[in-house]
Amino acid sequence: MTSRRQAGPSGAAFLLAQLGAHAAERFAQRVKELGLTPPDVGLLRMIASQPGRSQRSIATDLGVVPSRVVALVDNLERKELVERRPSATDRRHHALHLTTAGEQVLMRMRSIATAHEDDLCAALSTDERSQLASLLQRIADQQGLVPHVHPGYRNLSTPR
Amino acid sequence: MTSRRQAGPSGAAFLLAQLGAHAAERFAQRVKELGLTPPDVGLLRMIASQPGRSQRSIATDLGVVPSRVVALVDNLERKELVERRPSATDRRHHALHLTTAGEQVLMRMRSIATAHEDDLCAALSTDERSQLASLLQRIADQQGLVPHVHPGYRNLSTPR
DNA sequence: TATTGTTATACTCTATAACTATA
DNA sequence: TATAGTTATAGAGTATAACAATA
CATH number of the domain that B77 lies in? Predict the structure, then answer.
């Protein structure tokens, strides 16, 4: 037994990965009560923010392959949270929209997200939380992360 | 278009999940050059810190099922980084040890981890980095995370 | 010919369950 | 009877490739 640091990592990078996985996992548990997975949540948000988008454009923004969007949308359509509407201008497109039930789920999701945030940051004061958010935001900006897009969606087999 | 926050999350929790996934992904890219995956790295570290451990005890600490440890160790043994030695006291056990090559890889891993950390926190000053690490550490403690263990290893189908 | 969405398929990761050998 | 490790199997998630309809 050396005094400490036996196994190695305790710098910011490892803590970030560790806490990030923990946060994602806790969030997944919470939204599971709504019958949703984290990818479902991301997709609902994306559709809500820009209704009528095509699957292709979503696939591009998310960095995933179009066939994956098919599966995700199939899933949400089966739950009647999302609908594919025919596009007037290009009949190849499906315009994606939230249903009324979808809007409601989105609202419940927002309160879940707030509770999640509070629970996760329970160790910190309000000041410290915004201090943390600001430090994290600067890292995110410098690392070129796309706002609101979780990298977990990305296709890692085509990393460039 | 509302003024901002169209898609929703930009609090500390989402940033944490986003940056955590990003950090994990970048780290995975780096260790891939050593022919290793992140779980491999965690296992190597764990064996290095307590040589001679059994697979069962590692499975318990990592929160995974023993058969998964079999696969991970198989992989590292095939690369001749780890060896299973028979235990003198209980012939059911395999005592896990690093080979010389394993020790060397571990050293290279440490310098990779340092470079990773520097790169990830490039946006912050030295002071800010330790400020960040301290905030993160307090959250990790309060959330009950086990030091040095990435939650990604855990068996999520048995969450309690 | 190029593009959108779909289907069919395969691959990777990981857990479950049954099994062997020790204890 | 219980435990350490193993094998065989199955499931979830996701990519690839071939395809139909439309542009």
Answer: 1.10.10.10
